[in-house]
Amino acid sequence: MATLELDTVTKVYQESDDRIVAVDGISLSIDDGEFLVVVGPSGCGKSTMLRMVAGLESITDGVIRLDGQVINNVKSQDRDIAMVFQSYALYPHMTVEGNMSFGLEESTDMPDSEIASRVGDTAEMLDIAELLNRKPGELSGGQQQRVALGRAIVRDPKVFLMDEPLSNLDAKLRSQMRTELQRLQEELGVTTVYVTHDQTEAMTMGDRIAILNDGELQQVATPLEAYHEP
Ligand code: ADP
Ligand code: ADP
Asked: Which parts of the sequence belong to the ABC transporter domain (predicted)?
């Protein structure tokens, strides 16, 4: 169960004499279990918005709420929000199993046996159970992306944030992973914010689409409304 609310959220970067308003007063409410796709041109503030929700970037102004609680000052690891990056960001020296269990070991007092069982179940679900003892460098891009997803899923977070998670994959794999992500979303029902520049992903995956431009929210609409306007 998780609703996520952005209330006039703003991010200003100060670069010597330049003020860059990366996110400009965005207000947006994401329902429990909703899959929201965020689209917009490069540099419009998509990643900055996600990073603020994840707690990886400070918020200049405005409020972010998770289930009604203000999380502006909650540390990233305490937010119950998992982020998947375009670059996978796996630890190269750790095995797949290590990558998937690390977060749980660090931020919970879950017993090792339960961590192992969760990692096993998640690996089965993502079809990477046979890779648990490998290192990321020995895996294909698609396999690495599954591990990155697994690392997020295994934490059983309230919210998934995904920043162009499929854009490093070739077209065939991308379409396969798209289908798989939809299946996972239906199965897990986790509130998801998914950034992409791929129109097919936006049209087929989202319950709603948020269109950003120059740091501002232009429109929030269903795929049908967003792409089939007269
Ligand atoms: P998108 O994800 O839509 O491509 P970003 O959120 O990465 O957009 O960037 C939004 C704007 O903020 C851009 O103008 C970008 O150059 C700027 N920006 C992003 N990160 C930083 C940073 N760490 N320092 C300064 N400016 C940044
Ligand atoms: P994306 O388009 O996926 O946001 P970017 O290449 O824009 O990726 O950003 C990658 C990293 O570079 C981010 O950590 C962001 O904060 C940083 N960054 C982006 N734009 C700037 C900028 N103008 N000045 C400083 N850092 C930036």
From this structure: 4-230
